Amino acid sequence: MSLSHYGVYGVELASEITLALPPSADAPLARIELRRAGEAAFAAAAAVAQPSPDSGWFASADLEDGSIYVRWEGLGEFIAARDGLSIRCRQMPGAHEESFQVYLLGQALSYALVKAGFEPIHATVLVQDGHAVALLGDSGYGKSTLAASMLAVGARLLTDDLLMARPAGEGYVAYPGPARIKLLPDTAARFLPEAAEGVPMNPLTNKMILSLDADRVESRPTPLAGVYVLPSPLDADRRHRIGFQTLSPREAFVALVTNTFNRRLTDTGRMGRQHAQTAALSRAVPVAAITYPRGIEHVEELAEAILAHAASAVRAA
Q: Which residues pair with 287 in a beta bridge?
């Protein structure tokens, strides 16, 4: 079957699968091939895969040839090659195409990216006035709600969940992801009512996958102006005002490593590379911890404060 060529996160995907992505740009960071495969191609790997202790619907296996098998039950299964330059894919019966592609272009692709030598970060990135702002925060920290409120005040989405950031001059550039965001229905209805109809992300969450119009997204690589670390919900509840604390390079390093997109691959080579790449990023891009009062009524104020803080940092630089 012929391959179509798409661009996402700065890499080229040569794919048998039709993807909701733009064509590949010139000079991609890497070229990764996506091939469909039948159930039999995954049978041996599936037989030895171990379920995650955190979630029974995810399972994985390190294979003898250095590749890795990953499966999300009822959604899809994938094998990322040892060098990360190809992925075999199977969409499971009954899985929605949109949900399958979210996991293919996020979780599954992250294995290939790491094996190919990259270090994706778990972040949602917004763009305003030509500079990118990355939000770090674990599930339940309010990252998606904050991103939606930033879109509502005029920012554009660069990428949701998976950030690829690479050195560019004295700073870093952030690369665009798919033109979609994952939101709870009430958040979508409040901040993005025109996009509130979506597809369920997976059986374990109420989040919906929402496709965004072109005027809501940024499709070009954008200089990364700053990274903002959201507090845990417990810590946020204790604060009565919005505040920013610039982290030292050491503190920034810890925050970035904590928010790696892929925690499953832990071989020695990867750990050393992750340390070096993350240390370089933490020295080059400002990272700040945010404090703010918890509550949906404060989110729009927080969104505007972050964008203003980032713009101020850009002017000062």
A: 227
CA 311 – CA 226 distance, rounded (Å): 9
First to last CA, the chain: 50
The neighbouring-strand residues paired with 78 are: 70, 89
* 226 neighbors 285 (Cβ within 8 angstroms): yes
pLDDT value at residue 238: 58
Q: Does 119 have pLDDT greater than 70? A: yes
* Strands, E assignment, 37-93: 50-51, 58-62, 68-72, 76-80, 86-91
> What topology is assigned to 121-316 in CATH?
Rossmann fold (3.40.50)
Residue 36 to residue 108: CA distance in whole angstroms: 14
Which residue type sits at 194?
A: E
- Which amino acid belongs to residue 144? S
| DSSP code per residue over 154-183 | T-EEEESSEE-EEEETTEEEEPP--SEEEE
pLDDT at site 257? 96
Query: What residues are paired with 291 via a beta bridge?
Result: 243
Q: Where are the domains of the chain?
A: 4-115, 121-316
Return the SS3 of 70: strand
Nearest residue to 79 via CA among 105, 51, 42: 42
- Measured in whole angstroms, the distance separating CA 267 from the mean position of its chain's CA atoms is 22
The amino acid at residue 217 is V
**pLDDT digits over 242-277, tens only?**
899 999 999 999 999 999 999 999 998 999 999 999
Counted residue by residue, the chain has a size of 317
Q: Closest Cα to residue 121, out of 74, 87, 158, 152?
A: 158
Greatest C-alpha distance within the chain: 58
Q: Which of 196, 156, 192 is nearest to 177 (CA)?
A: 156
